[in-house]
């Protein structure tokens, strides 16, 4: 991937400066006075004019002023209008999130603009409360402001000033640069981690709410040019320069409400309009900074070295030793985030601290593995990554996860992720294929993409054997094995916090997909130690289904083979079977992994019957997926196999018809019946 440098910034500035002056005139000016504000609210229309929405953002303007240190002041001016009683209820209070250790928010103006044009000034009396938190407790807070009774057509206007920064590393709220608590007169905690730099990702949409105008301006010192790019649609912009500042303006008008097409739709950041901007020159600069800020965190003490010697004893290969260490960090460091001091959110904590506390978030689990691997003699560095969405080429903060990277003897990198491989034999989750990352090294690394996984790396195998009686009763056995993310998901379903009875229920639900009335005897369920990631998973269950097949008055027996009903379906193991059945999609789908499901079944037929009809063979194969079905007989035995393969983790809109075709055919499989008839005497 090519490196980015100052030329990109210069090109961005010059390209904007070359916009003809008549394009500049299109920039919507801010309202001149209260009368203009009231007119703006009135012109935003009613519920019908806004696609049936309950509220509309009439205007959202942000002006950012950046100082030499990188400290930024965000002046925000927003007007939200309620269009229905439901919308009025949603505006009964205003919530402003902040982090006391990296930013502070003040309310400069708080008013209601009534439908008749009158304006009611409100006291900026805020309730300062902790934000709701789960799993991670880093002290994020929120200001809440009560709003008097509104009616459709009323709007709330609020102007705020935020000093400091918001950082997306780990996508978790909390303390991110300095010691907690107020520091009167000390702005050091508001200076961003990369001192002297500014970066931002500016979105121009809002979930479920239309936006009439989103405007964003940023002023930087003359010696801090910004490089920027617009993604996922059009955003108007231009740049001006004076003696002291570079001024960048971006805006978009009449933005429809953003609604996810489907629960599997791509992240909004991959499809909705945004601008990514940064003064950082390139990704290697970000890499060097990340290395430097964490340089002292991976020094092992005697206790860690002793543990490393213990868990690697007798292991002969690098792969085995690395796997043992990664899985120790995965299994022994519980995921629970508490405040641990300076730099929370972007620095990794010292290895001995995590080893002692046995607790942390992704960066702590990664840091523990890095510390132990270094103690074992390996060259390892931390890495920033983005799970579930793209990282754009502009080096702004676009990460939500922390992992590690081991430098192998041939110079290649081996990625490790102790957070995502719990109960999995993998050291880098197959859910993280084709994922952007930046490794923090002294020399600086560029933005990279993790290797793709094959469908065979994430496979489900079901081997079934059953016996059908002349009265339609069925008795059989299922043997299930798996690999990659499929294996991990089954282990998690069965191993994490489930009692023996709950595991029994898991198997009962499995065979219930074959037909109602299926029963499982507890002694007929077998599985190995589910928490032993070194031993491949193998599940075996025997079942009985009275009256499984239909026995007609004509003496014929009709049934769908048990495996035709897509056993082990569901959103976690087979999301591709749960995709929307529509002709087209616009946002793309995230399936996370290529995957394969292989079903092989043998059915012993009742004496005195022969096969009058078999399910039709199928063989579909396209760029996104494939599906193959075969049914054959030999004597009194019927063999039925089908193989479904999804080849890509992301389904772009143009490839949707290919996946849809395969899914539709595979869904219809259980409707294609086997028919048996009595043999002629």
Describe the structure.
By secondary structure, the protein is α+β, with helices and mostly antiparallel strands. It folds into three domains: 117 residues, no CATH class; 165 residues, C8orf32 fold; 223 residues, Jelly Rolls, CATH 2.60.120.1130. 19% of the residues lie in helices and 33% in strands. An eight-stranded mixed sheet has the order 5-4-9-2-1-11-14-13. An eight-stranded mixed sheet has the order 26-27-25-24-31-35-34-33. Strands 21-20-19-22-23 form a five-stranded antiparallel sheet, covered by helices on one side. β33 and β34 form a beta hairpin. α7 packs across α10, α8 packs antiparallel against α10 and α9 crosses α10. The N and C termini lie far apart (74 Å). The N terminus is likely disordered.
Distinctive features:
alpha+beta, Jelly Rolls, C8orf32 fold, 8-stranded mixed sheet, single chain, 681 residues
Short description:
The chain is an alpha+beta fold and 681 residues long.
Query: What's the domain count?
Result: 3
**DSSP E strands, number:** 37
Mean pLDDT over the residues: 89
Strand content: 25-35%
For the largest beta-sheet, the strand count, sense and barrel status come to:
8 strands, mixed
Q: Please count the helical segments.
A: 13
Give the low-pLDDT segments.
Answer: 1-25, 168-184
> Which class of the largest domain in CATH terms?
Mainly Beta
Major sheet: order of its strands?
Answer: 5-4-9-2-1-11-14-13
């Amino acid at each position: 991937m090519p490196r980015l440098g100052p030329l990109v910034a210069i090109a961005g500035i010059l390209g904007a400066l070359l916009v003809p002056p008549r394009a500049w005139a299109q920039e919507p000016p801010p309202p001149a006075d209260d009368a203009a504000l009231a007119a703006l609210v009135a012109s935003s229309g009613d519920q019908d004019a806004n696609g049936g929405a309950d509220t509309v953002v009439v205007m959202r303007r942000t002006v950012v002023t950046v100082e030499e240190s990188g400290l930024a002041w965000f002046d925000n001016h927003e007007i939200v209008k309620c269009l229905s009683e439901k919308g009025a209820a949603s505006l009964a209070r205003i919530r402003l999130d902040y982090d006391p250790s990296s930013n502070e928010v003040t309310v400069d103006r708080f008013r209601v603009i009534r439908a008749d044009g009158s304006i009611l000034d409100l006291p900026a009396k805020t309730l300062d409360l902790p934000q709701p938190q789960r799993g991670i407790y880093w002290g994020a807070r929120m200001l809440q402001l009560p709003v008097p009774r509104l009616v459709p057509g009323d709007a709330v206007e609020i102007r705020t000033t935020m000093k400091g920064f918001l950082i997306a590393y780990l996508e978790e709220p909390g303390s991110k640069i300095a010691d907690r608590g107020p520091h009167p007169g000390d702005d050091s905690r508001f200076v961003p981690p990369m001192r002297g730099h500014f970066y931002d990702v500016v979105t121009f949409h809002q979930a479920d709410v239309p936006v009439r105008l989103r405007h964003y301006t940023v002023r930087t010192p003359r010696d801090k040019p910004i490089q920027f790019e617009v993604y996922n649609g059009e955003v108007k912009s231009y740049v001006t320069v004076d003696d002291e500042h570079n001024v960048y303006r971006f805006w978009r008008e009449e933005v429809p409400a953003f609604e996810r097409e489907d629960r599997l739709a791509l992240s909004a950041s991959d499809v909705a309009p945004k601008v990514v901007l940064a003064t950082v020159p390139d990704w290697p600069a970000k890499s060097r900074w990340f290395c430097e800020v964490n340089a002292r965190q991976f020094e092992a003490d005697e206790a860690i070295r002793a543990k490393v010697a213990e868990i690697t004893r007798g292991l002969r290969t690098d792969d085995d030793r690395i796997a043992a260490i990664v899985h120790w960090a995965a299994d022994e460091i519980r995921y629970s985030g508490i405040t641990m001091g300076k730099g929370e959110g972007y620095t990794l904590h010292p290895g001995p601290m995590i080893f002692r506390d046995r607790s942390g978030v992704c960066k702590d689990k990664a840091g523990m593995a890095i510390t132990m691997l270094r103690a074992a003699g390996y060259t390892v560095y931390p890495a920033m990554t983005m799970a579930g969405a793209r990282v754009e080429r502009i080096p702004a903060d676009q990460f939500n996860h922390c992992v590690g990277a081991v430098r192998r003897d041939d110079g290649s990198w081996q990625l490790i992720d102790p957070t995502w491989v719990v109960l999995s034999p993998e050291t880098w989750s197959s859910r993280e294929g084709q994922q952007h990352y930046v490794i923090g090294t002294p020399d600086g690394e560029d933005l990279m993409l993790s290797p793709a996984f094959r469908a065979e790396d994430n496979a489900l195998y079901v081997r079934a054997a059953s016996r059908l009686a002349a009265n339609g009763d069925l008795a059989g056995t299922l043997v299930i094995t798996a690999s990659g993310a499929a294996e991990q998901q089954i282990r998690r379903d069965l191993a994490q916090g489930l009692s023996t009875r709950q595991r029994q229920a898991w198997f009962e639900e499995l065979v219930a997909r074959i037909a109602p009335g299926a029963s499982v005897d507890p002694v007929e369920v077998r599985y190995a130690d589910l928490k032993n990631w070194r031993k491949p998973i193998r599940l075996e269950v025997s079942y009985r289904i009275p009256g499984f097949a239909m026995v007609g008055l004509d003496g014929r027996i009709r049934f769908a083979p048990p495996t035709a009903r897509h056993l082990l379906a569901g959103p976690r193991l087979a999301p591709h079977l749960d995709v929307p059945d529509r002709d087209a999609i616009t946002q793309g789908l995230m399936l996370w992994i290529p995957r394969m499901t292989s079903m092989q079944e043998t059915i012993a037929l009742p004496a005195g019957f022969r096969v009058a009809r078999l399910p039709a063979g199928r063989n579909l194969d396209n760029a996104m997926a494939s599906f193959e079905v075969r049914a054959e007989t030999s004597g009194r035995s019927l063999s039925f196999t089908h193989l479904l393969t999804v080849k890509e983790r992301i389904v772009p809109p143009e490839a949707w018809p290919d996946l849809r075709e395969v899914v539709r055919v595979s869904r219809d499989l259980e409707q294609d019946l086997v028919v048996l008839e009595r043999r002629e005497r």
